[in-house]
């Protein structure tokens, strides 16, 4: 290394020599200091269309800018918030850690950055994580604004957040007990298989049909890598997709991100009350 070359930051997730779990511990330490509590119990990741729902989960006691916490960056997607919040879960004395955004694989920051929020939540003591997203639906009767429980996923990113010979069982990757809890709150909830593509471009009609042949019901650009990391850390996972648009080829209407945001706004109250009730039951 020359004198002019910058040494890698000791908490740089992109540096292969850095332990990503050590970065998560460092991030958890900052959150503990800022919130004044040692432990959080449930984590929520709010995807496209879910941003307003965090207000209904409980009272926000602390807000932290992502850029103040090791390993986190600014929100890269319109409609996402670059803040994380410590939220009181009713009067139970329990706390939820609510992430207003996530790092997507298509941002090019690597898989470690994608799952850093999950690992930070685990380091804070969260034993359950709720992962939400906005997605394309493969069924014509799943209209925009429909929340769908994820019962399984197909990871088409060709990557995994797990490094080394660590063989994690993904048989019940989305915890059945949590899906049952969600249906206690809303008995009309459908469930399906989520297919993660790399993005950031939307899927072609042929790719959507391929996903359907493989057994998919929903297509999107997040969630499965985070779910794998959560299971590696021993966390229970509840995945909920908000159908924001029919997937390419299902409808003749061209896809656009504004449509995703509008569908989320229209469904915000139902989704927020669903999440608040489920979190209270967990």
From TrEMBL:
CDD domains: PNP-EcPNPII_like. Pathway: Purine metabolism; purine nucleoside salvage. It is an enzyme of class 2 (transferase). Its EC number is 2.4.2.1. GO terms for cellular component: cytoplasm. Phosphate binds at residues 48, 80, 102-104, 134, 222. InterPro entries: Nucleoside_phosphorylase_d, Nucleoside_phosphorylase_sf, PUNP, Purine_phosphorylase. It catalyses: a purine 2'-deoxy-D-ribonucleoside + phosphate = a purine nucleobase + 2-deoxy-alpha-D-ribose 1-phosphate. GO terms for molecular function: purine-nucleoside phosphorylase activity. Keywords: Glycosyltransferase, Transferase. Residues 42-280 form the Nucleoside phosphorylase domain. Belongs to the PNP/MTAP phosphorylase family. Homotrimer. This is Purine nucleoside phosphorylase. The lineage of its organism: Bacteria, Bacillati, Actinomycetota, Actinomycetes, Micrococcales.
């Amino acid at each position: 290394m020359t004198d002019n070359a910058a040494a890698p930051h000791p908490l740089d997730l992109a540096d292969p020599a850095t332990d990503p779990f050590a970065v998560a511990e460092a991030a958890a330490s900052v959150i503990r200091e800022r919130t004044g509590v040692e432990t959080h119990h449930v984590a929520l990741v709010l995807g496209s269309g879910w941003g307003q729902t965090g207000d209904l989960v409980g009272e926000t006691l602390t807000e932290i800018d992502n850029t103040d916490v090791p390993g986190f960056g600014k929100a890269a997607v319109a409609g996402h918030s670059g803040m994380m919040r410590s939220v009181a879960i009713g009067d139970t004395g329990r706390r939820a850690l609510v992430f207003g955004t996530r790092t997507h694989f298509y941002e090019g920051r690597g898989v470690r950055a994608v799952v850093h929020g999950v690992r930070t939540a685990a380091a804070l003591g969260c034993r359950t994580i709720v992962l939400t997203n906005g997605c394309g639906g493969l069924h014509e009767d799943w209209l925009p604004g429909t929340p769908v429980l994820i019962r399984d996923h197909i990871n088409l990113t060709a990557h995994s957040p797990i490094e080394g010979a660590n063989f994690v069982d993904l048989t019940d990757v989305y915890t059945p007990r949590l899906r049952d809890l969600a249906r206690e709150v809303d008995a009309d909830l459908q469930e399906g298989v989520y297919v993660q593509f790399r993005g950031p471009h939307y899927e072609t009609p042929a790719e959507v049909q391929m996903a359907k042949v493989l057994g998919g019901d929903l297509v999107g650009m997040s969630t499965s890598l985070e779910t794998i990391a959560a299971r590696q850390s021993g966390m229970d996972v509840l995945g909920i997709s908000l159908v924001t648009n029919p997937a390419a080829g299902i409808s003749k209407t061209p896809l656009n991100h504004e449509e995703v945001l509008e569908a989320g706004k229209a469904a915000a109250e139902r989704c927020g009350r669903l999440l608040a009730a489920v979190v209270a039951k967990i």
